[in-house]
Amino acid sequence: MASKPSIPKGTRDFNPQEVVKRNYIFDVMRKAFKRYGFQPIETPSFENSETLMGKYGEEGDRLIFKILNSGDYLKKVSDEELAAKDSAAITSKISEKALRYDLTVPFARYVVQHQNEITFPFKRYQIQPVWRADRPQKGRFREFYQCDADVVGSKSLWQEVELVQLYDSVFTNLRLRNTVIKMNNRKILSGIAEVIGEEDKLIDFTVALDKLDKIGVEKVKDEMRAKGISEAAIEKLGPLFNVSGSALEKLNSLKSLLASSETGMKGISELEFILNTIDEIQLKTAQLEIDVTLARGLNYYTGAIFEVGAPAEVSMGSIGGGGRYDDLTGIFGLKDMSGVGISFGLDRIYLVLEELGLFPETVLESTRALFVNFGNKEAMYAMRTINALREEGIAVDLYPDETKMGKQMGYADKRGIPFVILAGESEMQSRTYTLKNMKTGEQQTLDIDQLVSELK
């Protein structure tokens, strides 16, 4: 007996209703991206390993799915290397490609490879799946979509301002109110590391700090100690864990802590510009906050860092994030090409909308009306009308089989089709149609023009 088929952990099948809801989110995002002047691109699902490895830090590298070379992938591996069972040592010999971990690094590769064809500043959006060998849990999958918007070729902080507005616009149009856009600056974190005398451990420091909201202050300190950060340095961080107040009050608190760091003060200045500008422009529904411990663990951020939290009534991790990266294209040989970008977490946004009941009732309505099939002669009459209605942009269908009325009505009901159209012998003689509202049971006899008007 054949075993029951299954799919890998961390992946999902999507039924028609789920696909329609996901497409609704995609459509809202695409419209916003276009309104803000972003252009679409797509990149391959897998890249050369050298493109991806070393770009996400040690933790990120471990989560990259490697693709075995085709054919005899062990032919370059010696017997001694096989006997040693050192997977890290032989990975480069058996795998030259990997599934993309995110859309940002492939985008940087795209910019460098196509730099002579691109007009800068280049504003791109990209909606494609990515893969991570992570432990699956609620809101975290091994295959998921990212929806990114980036600008490269400009160091202007107006780009950060516009991306905050873009977040606000998308979430407002999804009716997702009270999202919190948290913001920090990598220069502030560098300044803190400098002030406490641990510049050489910046990555260890930020990776530990980024876990504050998940594991708490004491465990963050324990992790820092384990990474070799001195007790004296950890003691100096005390004020950082207690920063409170409004966004500008938090920055004022940081000024005294970072007074001796030119880099840290520049980070504060950049955040002040963004905050003051957004305060002038005003957001529709989102809230902009400063989180001085936000680090987002990725090595390529150099300026502003963003992370978006779901409304407080939903238990969910971040639903978006991003930041400024001054050096990303430099790793592919193109220097002094600053960029900034944000990402929307489609799958988590979907779960939040579902939990809060924010999908419009009409989003699942794919077929507007179903013609009942009374036989071939009546079906031909119906089909001519169906073609005319489709030309008007109305989604209608004919039940394929001549069968009991109850079965056809039941089909329409299960599919959530709001109207059923009866076109039997009497309707054919009078050149009319009987339109039944499946929700109210009300019936109307209409001619073709009235039918078009009613269904539209």
Question: How would you describe this structure to a colleague?
Answer:
The protein is α+β, with helices and mostly antiparallel strands. It has 2 domains: 16-64 and 101-356, BirA Bifunctional Protein, domain 2 (2-Layer Sandwich); 365-455, 3-Layer(aba) Sandwich (Rossmann fold). The chain has helices at residues 16-35, 49-52, 57-62, 79-84, 87-94, 104-113, 158-173, 186-195, 202-209, 212-215, 217-226, 231-236, 238-241, 247-257, 262-281, 346-356, 376-391, 405-415, 425-430, 448-455, and strands spanning 39-40, 46-48, 66-67, 97-99, 122-131, 143-152, 180-185, 287-290, 304-309, 318-325, 339-345, 369-371, 396-398, 419-422, 433-437, 443-446. An 8-stranded mixed β-sheet has the order 1-5-6-11-10-9-7-8. The protein has a 5-stranded mixed β-sheet with strand order 13-12-14-15-16. The radius of gyration is 28 Å and the shape is globular. The two termini are 52 Å apart. The relative contact order is 0.11.
Q: Give the helix proportion (percent range).
A: 40-55%
Going across the major beta sheet, what is the strand order? 1-5-6-11-10-9-7-8
Measured between the Cα atoms of the first and last residue, the distance is: 52 Å
Structural class by SSE content: alpha+beta
| DSSP helical segment count | 20
Q: Strand content of the residues, in percent? A: 15-25%
- Average pLDDT, rounded to a whole number, is 90
Q: Which tags fit this structure?
A:
single chain; 456 residues; alpha+beta; BirA Bifunctional Protein, domain 2; Rossmann fold; five-stranded mixed sheet
